[in-house]
Amino acid sequence: MSALSRREFGVATLTTLALLFSRTSSASSSSTISFTTLSIVANLDPASDEFNLLNRISFGVTDQELNTIRATGTSAYIEQQLDPLSIDDSQLDATLSEYFPALALPISKLLKRDKKIPSQLRYATAFRAAYSRRQLNEVMVDFWSNHFNIYQQGLTGFLKIIDDREVIRPHAMGYFKDLLFASAHSPAMLLYLDNHKNTKQGGNENYARELLELHTLGVDGGYTQEDVIQVAYCLTGWTVAGKKSTHQGEFVFNSRRHKKGVKTVLGEAIHFPDDPIKEGERVLEILANHPATARFISKKLCRRFVSDTPSNTLIEHIASVFIQTGGYIPDLLRAIFNSSEFRQSADQKIRRPFELMSSFIRSLQISPYKNLIQKMNGMLTILDQVPFRRLSPDGYPDKAEDWINSNALINRWNFAITAVNLKFKQKNMSRLISANTIEGIVDELVDRLLFRPLSNVDRETIIAFAQNYAPQNKTLKAKQKRNVTLRISTLLLASPYYQWR
């Protein structure tokens, strides 16, 4: 049988998916995809604690990682993931060096402007999410890449490679203050948010506004429009060296562009006439240590790891840890993972498209090759989450309501087809299945792809679906087994058991 097409896998699949999703939402069973999914909260059969932890601190559960966490225990596993440099990832590093050499290039070579260079970062990011052993670190790189979002376009597209390498990755599991300072000095950020245009002759408030609203205090963080103006004044002269400079593309402070005089930010007078770059640095210190920043960052972390609507109790607890530790990110994560709310919140988060792609690769154990991510990039484009292609500075959203509707669910089903077809081109999965009956194939695939039980009702629904393609209670021939394996694999990956984490 050739690769499965969307048309082939049509009405019966839509009917079955509708039944599966209707049992996890207020929608009634239907033969069409017409879910009331904006308020959907999964109510699936429970999985093991180890699975639930992995499903939320990684880009997808694998049998190897499950075996590791069962051998070490959840606490030891968390501690290892909180210390990513202790985990050997040299095999992945070697693959990235071979496939995506631009990642290691200095600015001078990046700025030769080969138009294919920015895409190497996007593909490498997806490779890391799928194949890195430092899974929690990659989750946090994704988190901070969206928090400090930079759209890859033009010169910024090249400089984002430096930003990823020198700003996000080295600080993703460090102190928030260090990450904030590094981002504020990032040429990619200063260009993206126009601070290179922010001079004493003509102020530009874009970066100052997003620094307050998106990077630190939050929109309700207590600042005023006058604070935005004053922060912008403090950051005049923070710019990027131009073409005529031997340091083209690097951060520079141009004191001749800096607006002199006293500035007042959040009630504090700021003035360093002998060393004016310190005015911007003092602003960053104030913001990094502000209670509103602690709460804003804590809320976003709780939303990422717990639910779309974490409790104020949990948010305030994590904010207190932020203040006590000076914003040390591993301590914030440890506090979240040890909370009762985290332990009780399995299946409360929908996988966003980028997470879905990474988890497909991990669950199907698709072997890495250079063009793999390019093959799947088309679906990420349709589902609107290509890495570093979010135009607005707020980054990709992290709530189900932004990702789930009837059309999106159909696109997710198509994405599952794409992934399973890629796996079958590499290896006929049916040969990995020992069972030769529909029931046996369903059970083995559930163990292999979901790592969790189906409810009896859902198991019978999926078996009934498979009967459209092969006889029940009979030994299947090779072609029938391949057909059923391909279709059931796709259905399971498109089901709510997989789409929620």
Describe the protein in words.
The protein is built from 25 helices and four strands. The strands form two sheets. Strands 1-2 form a two-stranded antiparallel ribbon. A two-stranded antiparallel sheet has the order 3-4. The chain is mainly α and 501 residues long. Among the domains are: 11-40 and 404-499, no CATH class; 291-343. Helix 1 packs antiparallel against helix 23 (456-466) and helix 22 packs across helix 23. The chain is elongated and about 85 Å long. Residues 25-42 have low confidence and may be disordered.
Question: Any chance you could write out the topology, listing elements then pairs?
Answer:
Elements: H1 11-22, H2 49-57, H3 63-72, H4 74-81, H5 90-99, H6 107-110, H7 117-131, H8 135-147, H9 154-171, H10 176-184, H11 187-192, H12 206-215, H13 225-234, E1 238-240, E2 251-253, E3 263-265, E4 268-270, H14 277-288, H15 291-305, H16 312-325, H17 329-337, H18 340-343, H19 353-364, H20 372-382, H21 406-426, H22 438-450, H23 456-466, H24 478-494, H25 496-499
Antiparallel strand pairs: 1-2, 3-4
Helix pairs in contact: 1-23, 3-4, 7-19, 9-10, 10-14, 12-13, 15-16, 15-17, 16-17, 19-21, 20-21, 21-24, 22-23, 22-24
